UniProtKB/TrEMBL annotation:
Keyword Transcription tagged: yes
Keywords: DNA-binding, Phosphoprotein, Transcription, Transcription regulation
CDD domains membership: REC_YesN-like
Annotated PROSITE patterns: HTH_ARAC_FAMILY_2, RESPONSE_REGULATORY
Protein name: DNA-binding response regulator
Highest classification ranks of the organism: Bacteria, Bacillati, Bacillota, Bacilli, Bacillales
Length: 532
């Protein structure tokens, strides 16, 4: 249904036409009636109508001036003039403004106006249909062009060609790539899943838009071939006859293209240069390595321009620092220390980046950390995990860079800390919270009920009843629970003996420690260590 407005400073005319014309039967929705051109412009310009029925002579802004403003905003807008002016100059102006009918008020009748409106409705409908068909045609043409480019890219990657046949195959598909040398480049869309969610566009549409923007910017100064390889990867071949001269110009153009993507799509891309090639075989070898060895991009910062180089990953033990990492993160979460949490994750990330561990090892280490922390959270708070193990594995596996992994890990850990904080605060007194936090951060020390009550300036009996009432657990039971949790970590992650662990956790009597452990776990500490 089309939209229309009535504009006339003669109130009886407005009222008569709004009621007498069969608007809905004509397929028109009357969205407004205005008594001057200025009022119509101010109130309807945010959502311009398809049709305007207007007088000419009105104060402040006449009908023709108003139509000129609307037409500048919406060129396809149509109009009917109802006027007392029977002068050629007005009719001339009306024709220039795409006016469909010029009707004198003295001869106006409803049948004539409805006939004019019916004619305009058909014309607008026909124009819209033609416009839609043209868009569909252009879309199909673009899709066919994209399909041809993608097929040529796949042929280049997976078939053997001599250079002459390869260039001829490209030419037959409308692709001009004749050159002495070629500079391959891979464009990687940073975090396409997030971009898709934020932009409310499919990943395919985003990659299509990135390709078009980059092509528009780059082809102004360079001969090139560009095609999508996947929803997050785009391949570019720069054609060059003087590569030593062109490298700097290409680098500058890529910066401009990446800036254009950021400006128009609000997302970043990473650009990776490959080794210069002279033949299809060299191109194939370079591009296949760049596309298959995605782990080589793991240490690249996002939104940068990089040179593809194969990394020799460290063979050192990434778990050498795991014990201290877990202890630091565990304390930061338990005590809700957001700043320290970010610092510890950053320090670990910097250590990983310096060592250059294999990305799979890094992700496995992160998954172990999260599962250990989640398991402890579930045991302590008797609450469900933030994310199931399968989901965690899927999310972490899909992260492409160390930079993104650090950012995601901090967010996840902060959410875990927030959950613990909310759980602790919503049903416990401040004295109980302080006692819990003290035990968490001093778990290796000997802690008695009397000592804790003294720290809080409370009577020991009163503190014991308060803690039991708020947590449904005796204070010493709570202390032992945390100590035994720490004991399990030490048995899993350190080479300490049972006696050393007992002493480290503040137990004067090794037999008492073993008895507590067996009661909690159903086995002796030595058996637990052997089983794990």
């Amino acid at each position: 249904m089309l939209t229309a407005i009535l504009v006339d400073d003669d109130y009886p005319v407005i009222r008569y036409l709004s009621q007498a014309v069969s608007w809905s039967e004509l397929g028109i929705e009357l969205t407004g009636c205005y008594y001057s051109g200025l009022e119509a412009w101010e109130k309807a310009r945010q959502n311009p109508p398809d049709l305007i029925i207007t007088d000419i002579g009105m104060p402040k802004m006449n009908g023709l001036e108003m139509l000129e403003k609307f037409r500048a905003m919406k060129p396809g807008i149509r109009a009917i003039i109802l006027s007392c002016h029977n002068e050629f100059k007005y009719a001339q102006q009306a024709l220039k403004l795409n006016v469909g009918e010029y009707i004198l008020k003295e001869s106006l009748n409803i049948e004539q106006l409805e006939h004019a409106l019916r004619t305009l409705v058909k014309e607008v409908g026909l124009n819209r249909q033609q416009h839609t068909e043209m868009l569909v045609y252009k879309q199909k043409q673009s899709q066919n062009r994209a399909a041809l480019k993608e097929k040529f890219l796949k042929d280049t990657l997976y078939q053997s060609w001599d250079k002459v046949a390869w260039i001829e195959q490209a030419r037959s598909n409308g692709i001009m790539i004749h050159a002495k040398t070629y500079i391959p480049m891979l464009i990687v869309i940073d975090r396409p899943e997030e971009a898709s969610r934020v932009r409310r566009m499919s990943e395919y549409t985003i990659s299509f838009a990135v390709e078009n923007i980059m092509q528009e910017v780059l082809e102004a100064d360079h001969s090139l071939f560009i095609s999508r390889y996947s929803h997050k990867e785009i391949v570019i071949l720069f054609c060059s006859d003087q590569s030593s001269r062109d490298h700097q110009a290409i680098y500058h153009s890529i910066q401009n293209a990446a800036s254009a993507v950021q400006k128009y799509l609000k997302l970043s891309v990473s650009c990776i240069f490959g080794a210069e090639a002279r033949s299809p075989e060299e191109i194939r070898g370079t591009l296949q390595r760049m596309l298959k060895e995605k782990i080589q991009r793991f240490y690249f910062p996002a939104a940068g321009i990089h040179r593809f180089e194969e990394i020799s990953f460290s063979r050192d033990d990434i778990y050498a620092e795991y014990g201290s990492l877990y202890a630091d993160i565990n304390d930061d979460i338990a005590l809700n220390r957001e700043t320290e949490l970010r610092i510890h994750v950053k320090e670990w990330r910097e250590w990983v980046a310096t060592q250059k561990f294999h990305p799979n090892e890094v992700k496995e280490c992160v998954l172990r950390l999260l599962m250990d922390l989640q398991l402890k959270t579930k045991q302590l708070l008797q609450s469900p995990l933030l994310m199931a193990e399968e989901k965690l594995f899927s999310v972490v596996s899909d992260i492409d860079t160390l930079e993104h992994l650090e950012e995601w890990l901090v967010q996840y850990l902060e959410e875990l800390a927030r959950k613990i904080s909310i759980f602790s605060i919503k049903s416990k007194r401040s004295e109980v919270i302080k006692a819990q936090q003290f035990v968490i951060s001093h778990v290796t020390e000997k802690i008695t009920l009397e000592d804790m009550a003294g720290r809080l300036n409370l009577n020991a009996s009163y503190f014991s009843r308060l803690f039991k009432r708020e947590t449904n657990q005796n204070f010493i039971e709570y202390v032992n629970m945390l100590k035994l949790q720490k004991a399990k970590e030490l048995l899993n992650q350190s080479g300490k003996t049972v006696e050393e662990i007992s002493e480290y956790l503040g137990y004067a009597n090794k037999s008492y420690f073993i008895k507590l452990f067996k009661r909690e776990m159903g086995m002796r500490p030595s058996e637990y260590a052997a089983w794990h």
